[in-house]
Predict the structure of Amidase.
Amino acid sequence: MQPYELPLAAAADAIRARRLSPVELVDSVLARIEEVEPHLGAYVTVTAERARRAALEAEREAARGRFRGPLHGIPMGLKDLIDVAGTATTASSRVRAGHRAQADSTVAARLTAAGAILVGKTHTHEFAYGLTTPQTNNAWDRGRVAGGSSGGSAVAVASGAATFSLGTDTGGSIRVPAALNGVVGLKPTYGLVPRHGVTSLSWSLDHVGPITRTVEDAALVLTALAGHDPRDPASPAAPAVDYRPDTGTDLTGLRIGLPRTYYFDHVDAEVEAAVRYAIGRLEALGARLVEIDIPMTRYVQATQWGLMVPEATAYHEGTLRAVPELYQADVRILLEAGELMSAGDYLRAQRSRTLMRREWARVLEEVEVIAAPTVPMTAVRADERTVTWPDGTAEGVSDAFVRLSAPANITGVPALSVPVGHDTAGLPIGMQLLGRPFGERSLLRVGHAYERTRPARALAPVA
C-alpha cells in the first residue's frame, strides 16, 4: 500500500509510531496529484513547495517527540473559498482573479496549528453556487459530474490526492459530492465550525465541514475544527469536545427514524435498495427503527431558495453591477434573479424556517438519528440537465441533488453522508444520517458502527 492510500487515522498512527514520516506521506500525495489531476481537475492550485517545507518541519518536530495530535503531518486540500494567508482564494471565478488572502481563516489556522499540511486549494462550483462543479470530473467516472459545490474536495479525497479536505455546505455542497464520489462528508450543526475567513454564499445557511475516507477520520478533523470564535456571529460558546467515536458497534436502544415521507420519494431504485439495506444493518446492530413523517415537506424548496438567493445576491451586489461579464452564465442568472425577490419573500422564507425548525425539533424528540438517502440518484453524465422519474415527473439535476440535503441547512441540524455501496454501473451511493443540534457524537457513532460492518473501501480506480 502506498502512503497516499492510507486513511487519516491509519496515517496518523503510522506517523506517531515513526513507521511513516510526514515527508514520505506528503511526497506520496503530491505524486498522486501529478498522476490523477490531468484526468480529474480537482485542484485550482497545488502548493507543492509550501507542503514540502511544512512536511520537513513536521518531521523535525516528530524527531524531537513533539506531536501536535492526530493531524500532525497529514496532507489536506481546502476548498477555494477558504482563506489561507498569502494564497489565492479564487472561488473558482474570474471575479477573484489576482486576489490573495491577507490572513488565515479560522479553520485554516486551527488545522495548521493541529499539524495538518496544505497541499492545495480545491475547485468549487463558482462561488459555491451550484451542485455540479463543472471544472472537476467524478473520481469514479470521468464522464460524470463530481457533484458540488465542494466537488474538488470530494474528488481529491476519493482519488488519494488529499488525505482529507474541507468543503462548505449551503444546500448539500459537502454531502452531495461526498455521496457521488464514495467518501464521507459531514455538515456540522450550524455555527459549530466557525466561518470567519470563508467566502459566503448564504450566511444563514453556510456551514464548513470535513470530507474524509472514513467516519473516524471525520471525527478527528471535526475535533480540531469545532469551537467558539467571536468573529462568527453564529458561533456558540461551547466547550471543546472530542468527537472520536467508540470502537464498538452496539447500537442497542438507539432510536433511528425511518422516513415514511419525502426522503424516499422520487429516488432511484438502486439507491433506495442500498440505503434500506444499510438501515437494516443498523437495526441488526441493535438500533430500533421508528417510522416518522418529515414535516413541512412542501415548503422545503421554496424556503431554501427564498433564503439563499437574496442573501447570495446581497453578498455579490457590488461586483455583479461592476463586472457582471466575469461571472459564469448560470451563476450570473441566479444572482440577477435575486434582485427581483422582494423583502416580503425573504421574510416569509425566514418565518417558514422558524416553523420548520420547531417541527423538526419535535420529530427529533422521538428519535436520536434519521437515516435516509443523501441524494436521490448516483452521478449523472456531465451533459445531463434533467432526470425523469418513472411516474413521468421531470426534475432538474441540481434540484434533485439539493432536494434531500436542503432540510438540514434550513434547520441547521447536523448531517453525515456515509458510502453504502455502488449501483450496477459501479457508481457510489450515500446514506445520510441527520441528528439533533450539536448531536454530532451520535451521528458519528452510528456512521462508525455501520462502517465497521463493511469491508475497507478502496480509492476510486482513476484511469
In short: DSSP finds 15 helices and 13 strands in the chain.
